[in-house]
Structure formats: structure tokens, C-alpha cells
Write a structure and sequence with these properties.
It contains 8 helices and 11 strands. The protein is an alpha+beta fold and 317 residues long. Helix 2 (30-53) packs antiparallel against helix 6 (124-158) and helix 3 runs antiparallel to helix 4 (96-116).
Length: 317
């Protein structure tokens, strides 16, 4: 029967729980965040196993349901505690999904122990139940990674369209700053027959909103033009800056494209920028067209009206 002395067990718990607080670095991609979140399951599988192994060793028969239930309850309590602690840490958020992953990981770890212990293996009913627990835990832990794969597949299918990509990808890779982004039909005056939904940027009067592709399809090589189909329904011109940067960007103004764009009042128009101009935009180097990281259309001053539409962003050959 697996047993860990209390001092060693406490050390192992401290090391496992410390891994939960590894910070998310700037520039972390969506799949990296999902992988980090799914890692909670692995960590808490270990936590539950250690908690179970720290229980007093008995010379007699197998561990029972009570032993596993106690280890599970303690593991989940630790998971909730680590989430609540993040209320006081800068840049961290409390996540119910993380707690679910913690619980699923604990179930997985305890079920694997039950399957591995020889005495339990003689009980087919317990083995069957433990196997079902393993399967259920794996389904929970795999859900977000599988959804992540669907998001990237949706983005890949839409290329060379960069936005809109589809509901799943738009929800992850399209963001508004000082504004809300939603899928909506263009007003009748600018709508074209058979046209699908646009992305609407809704903002408060006097705001300086921004439309952002947080993780654009990165490889723009072999294309000649970046195009944006946009509509300004307001009765005054809207001034924006089109910003494009790559993964090497050093977060200085000179190391990216910063192109002023003026959209006339009550107008739908297509803005086109040559890829060559984007490549030449950084002052001290060429932009890496195989590693584009971010595209933003932002207002340097308050905009008129309360909404703005992006019907499509795409690359042309």
C-alpha cells in the first residue's frame, strides 16, 4: 500500500501547489493558457495521491471509500483555497473552471491509485467503478483542450480572412478596448445582398475604442495587401490608427506599423495597406511577416456616435 511520511508529503504538497501560481507571461497564446489551465488536473491528481498516501498506514486490508473521500475533499478544499488566494495576487483571476479541473484531477489520481492497488484489483466492481471515474475525469480535463483545437481549426479555415473567423474563434481572438464587440447585421443603408454578420464595436459617447485581433493568423508571407472593410455610421469622420506588430515587437512606437486612417462620416469603405509597407514599418528592422502577433484599429481621440462596424479583415495576394 502506497505510504508517504508526513514531512515528505507536506513538502510534495507545497511543491505541487506552488506550480499553480506560475505567472502567465505577456504574449502567452490561447493554447498555452488552455494547456496551463488543464495542467491543474495533473497537479491535483498528484495532490490527491499525496494526501491519500499520507494517511496512517494500516497493516490490514485495502483503503476504503472513506479514505478516498477524505483525500478528495481535502484536495478540492486546497483547490478552492488556491483560487481564493489569487484574489489578492496582481494579474490573477478566480476561475470556477480551474476548481473543476482540480476536482477532476483529484478524481483521476485517486481512481488510478485504486486501479493500481493489488487488493482492490481483485474486486471487479471496484475496478469497473474506478475505470469509469478515470474516463469521466479525462473527459472533463480534455474538454477545454479539444475546444481549443476547434478554435484554431476555425481560424485556419477562415484564412486569408482574419476576421470574422466564426463564433468560436471570434470569441477568443477578437477583442474590444473601451468597447464591446459583438456579431451583428450591418444597418440597411450599408448592407449588401446575401452578406453575413459583421463585427460591431459598441462604445459610450466620447470613448476612444479599439478593435483588436489578439492572436491573428501569423503567417502573412506571400500576400500583398492587408484589407479592412469598415463602416462608420456616425455623422462625423472617425479617426483611427492601424497598428500591426510581430512577436519580436519591443513595445516601442517605432517598432511597429502605426498608420493613421480616417473613415468619412456615414460611409462604408475598404482600407488597403501594402504588406511591403507593413514589413518596412519598424525603424530598425524588417517586421517578421511569418510571425504577426497583433492587429489593432484604435481611436487616438474620442469618436463620434456610439458604434462602428468591421465587416471583414483579410489578406490579398
Amino acid at each position: 500500500m502506497l505510504h508517504v511520511p508526513r514531512p515528505l508529503g507536506l513538502l510534495l504538497l507545497a511543491l505541487l501547489l506552488a506550480s499553480v501560481f506560475v505567472p502567465t507571461l505577456p504574449g502567452t497564446t490561447y493554447w498555452q493558457r488552455v494547456l496551463q489551465d488543464a495542467g491543474h488536473g495533473v497537479v491535483f491528481a498528484g495532490v490527491a495521491i499525496v494526501l491519500l498516501a499520507m494517511q496512517s498506514r494500516r497493516a490490514t486490508a485495502r483503503r476504503g471509500v472513506r479514505d478516498h473521500a477524505q483525500a478528495f475533499a481535502l484536495a478540492v478544499a486546497l483547490g478552492i483555497g488556491t483560487e481564493l488566494l489569487q484574489l489578492y495576487l496582481p494579474g490573477r483571476n478566480v476561475s470556477a473552471m480551474d476548481v473543476l479541473h482540480d476536482a477532476a484531477g483529484a478524481v483521476l489520481g485517486l481512481a488510478l491509485v485504486a486501479l493500481a492497488e493489488r487488493r482492490v484489483a481483485e474486486d471487479r466492481g471496484v475496478v469497473r467503478y474506478a475505470a469509469m471515474c478515470v474516463l469521466a475525469a479525462l473527459v472533463v480535463l480534455a474538454w477545454e483542450p479539444l475546444r481549443c483545437a476547434r478554435v484554431y481549426a476555425e481560424r485556419s479555415r477562415s484564412f486569408p480572412t482574419l476576421a470574422p473567423m466564426g463564433p468560436l474563434a471570434d470569441a477568443q481572438f477578437v477583442a474590444g478596448r473601451n468597447a464591446k464587440v459583438s456579431r451583428a447585421t450591418l444597418p440597411q443603408a450599408w448592407r449588401r445582398p446575401g452578406e453575413g454578420p459583421a463585427l460591431r464595436l459598441s462604445y459610450a459617447p466620447g470613448a476612444r475604442p479599439a478593435f483588436e485581433l489578439t492572436e491573428a493568423a501569423p503567417d502573412w508571407q506571400g500576400h500583398a495587401v492587408l484589407a479592412l472593410d469598415v463602416t462608420n455610421p456616425a455623422d462625423a469622420p472617425a479617426t483611427f490608427i492601424l497598428r500591426v506588430l510581430d512577436r519580436q515587437h519591443d513595445w516601442t512606437h517605432e517598432d511597429r506599423l502605426n498608420l493613421p486612417v480616417i473613415i468619412p462620416a456615414a460611409t462604408r469603405t475598404t482600407v488597403r495597406v501594402s504588406i511591403a509597407a507593413i514589413a518596412d514599418a519598424p525603424v530598425a528592422r524588417d517586421m517578421d511577416l511569418g510571425a504577426i502577433a497583433n492587429v489593432m484599429l484604435f481611436a487616438p481621440r474620442p469618436l463620434p456616435g456610439a458604434e462602428f462596424y468591421v465587416s471583414r479583415v483579410w489578406l490579398e495576394e
